[in-house]
Amino acid sequence: xxxxxxxxxxxxxxxxxxxxxxxxxxxxxxxxxxxxxxxxxxxxxxxxxxxxxxxxxxxxxxxxxxxxxxxxxxxxxxxxxxxxxxxxxxxxxxxxxxxxxxxxxxxxxxxxxxxxxxxxxxxxxxxxxxxxxxxxxxxxxxxxxxxxxxxxxxxxxxxxxxxxxxxxxxxxxxxxxxxxxxxxxxxxxxxxxxxxxxxxxxxxxxxxxxxxxxxxxxxxxxxxxxxxxxxxxxxxxxxxxxxxxxxxxxxxxxxxxxxxxxxxxxxxxxxxxxxxxxxxxxxxxxxxxxxxxxxxxxxxxxxxxxxxxxxxxxxxxxxxxxxxxxxxxxxxxxxxxxxxxxxxxxxxxxxxxxxxxxxxxxxxxxxxxxxx
Amino acid sequence: xxxxxxxxxxxxxxxxxxxxxxxxxxxxxxxxxxxxxxxxxxxxxxxxxxxxxxxxxxxxxxxxxxxxxxxxxxxxxxxxxxxxxxxxxxxxxxxxxxxxxxxxxxxxxxxxxxxxxxxxxxxxxxxxxxxxxxxxxxxxxxxxxxxxxxxxxxxxxxxxxxxxxxxxxxxxxxxxxxxxxxxxxxxxxxxxxxxxxxxxxxxxxxxxxxxxxxxxxxxxxxxxxxxxxxxxxxxxxxxxxxxxxxxxxxxxxxxxxxxxxxxxxxxxxxxxxxxxxxxxxxxxxxxxxxxxxxxxxxxxxxxxxxxxxxxxxxxxxxxxxxxxxxxxxxxxxxxxxxxxxxxxxxxxxxxxxxxxxxxxxxxxxxxxxxxx
Lengths: 372, 372
Prior knowledge:
The structure is a homodimer.
Chain A: H1 3-19, E1 25-27, H2 30-37, E2 45-49, E3 52-58, H3 62-68, E4 73-77, H4 83-93, E5 98-102, H5 108-118, E6 126-130, H6 133-139, H7 143-165, H8 173-186, E7 191-192, E8 197-200, E9 221-226, E10 228-229, E11 238-243, H9 249-267, H10 275-288, E12 300-302, E13 309-313, E14 326-329, E15 332-335, E16 339-342, E17 345-349, E18 354-356
Parallel strand pairs in A: 1-5, 3-4, 5-6
Antiparallel strand pairs in A: 1-2, 2-3, 7-10, 8-9, 9-11, 12-13, 14-17, 15-16, 17-18
């Protein structure tokens, strides 16, 4: 990506930092650091404000930072010098009166160490807890990011179609999950967006099932929750249920409720809609069908550099949708011991509504597959 | 793993909590929760003390917890009820006067929310910041854990040997990294312990290089840093440099220094040795050869459920080695623009010394491979 993109993001952040009345913010969330600088390593913080921009890292990353970043000062520490010392050096040099830090990604231990290190003879700068300012900026994707997510969707969908074409009843969940990862890479993915879920029959009742030794043919249906990560670091996230043999009527009924709920959720997506109202639109369908207590999670989450990011669809979420946000819509019904159905797509909020970025068929009849 | 193992670990932790004078500790570090309970999901905390043991989770995990854990109370929340509310319910019911929490894994934002939620009419229990008590217990592996790490080493080594046997000059770093992951799975790994590093020539100067489009045959040497994760969740971590064509004499010299440093580091490992002294034993060799400033990271780190855990070998680490610890020894020399050499093995501290768990040959002559 061009450096201009990172400069623009930092400029937008600096405007927010000014509004907070702070001279600087310490960015400790790794994905936020990547989004603001292009740097893809870890263990590095960005200190940024109207008058400074310093990436604080260590000698492992000297060369990589020179390759990936520009327009920033760099403070490099070695194995003898802990992060909090390097932060103190930079804040002292900048004569900061106060220092904001990201509360969601700064541990109490880190805070205690930074606090002790920056306390000079005059007490040092005041530490101010700051909310998810950078994450909120990240929630609205720019054109380059949307293109990356489209690519991640493409890689996930091509990989999935190829996996279905070679699916066999005597393969284990884990073997199929590995095959799916392999095939997404075959279509250009750097890797999976997260460890894929492949859950046969009753195992689909676990919303976060880990693939195991169960055979694909052991039950009549399989749930897949998967996504790809592009080499640019962006992610997709889909869920589908495939029907591999004679279908219990109960499954068809539940599938219908979930699909209806998912469509209602998607339909509610447009700029200005509250996050709560979209969750409500889908959840109501499931509640009306009598399955409310079997849908315990939120309706969806933003995707981007992280697999779960802002905003969130949930009964208690605050905020409204804005153009450029990309969010999953993934209602589910989970019946312990019996199985579960979840259907998930990735949706872009457009100027006048929404665009569903994912296109794997999801009608009940589409879900029926022949396996050997 | 048998439930007795988790009960024993919790009993040991409770003894530590008593010593700290606390009625309970809130365990927020995911790997610590797994180690204490067997639960392999995320987003769940363990509240534990002499008189209570409660796993606080959400509806996505109800079934999984019943499968994986026993001997614990469970507090399940749904999408309407945030984690801090569930914590408040449990702490109020237990009438706790104080509550320790893991400072390294509790964000300031979480702390602020818990703090507000548990403040009852009488102010609620006092929140007390606690160090890495569980992580310190985890540093000493029991026999089951050592067996798991041996398995992770085996999977990594079998996969690596197979990868070398099919290595070709016209494959990219990324293709080879994927092949290596695939082959480790072929030998039973659940997946890689971390995203493998495959770094050709000058790219080996980046200690944390990401595999990219560079061809294996573009330079005379390739650095591999890889490991396997078992289905039980335990990890291995190795680094080797392979020489794929005519070797620059400078590489041979640097290789010799790094190998000598690594052997000296390993030799210093025994119960009672300080973490600093082991780092020193290896670092001195590199400094004496004039490359001190090109070895900027610590000498090694514990491995287990996490790829980086306690203890750490570094010039500033405090503490001593104890039997049962498993640590990497991985000195390196990195010359920007030219390349780098790192050699890494996994070492178990035994009652009377150490045992090197990894066995991939590492003499300079062993590193020479023929590729097509």
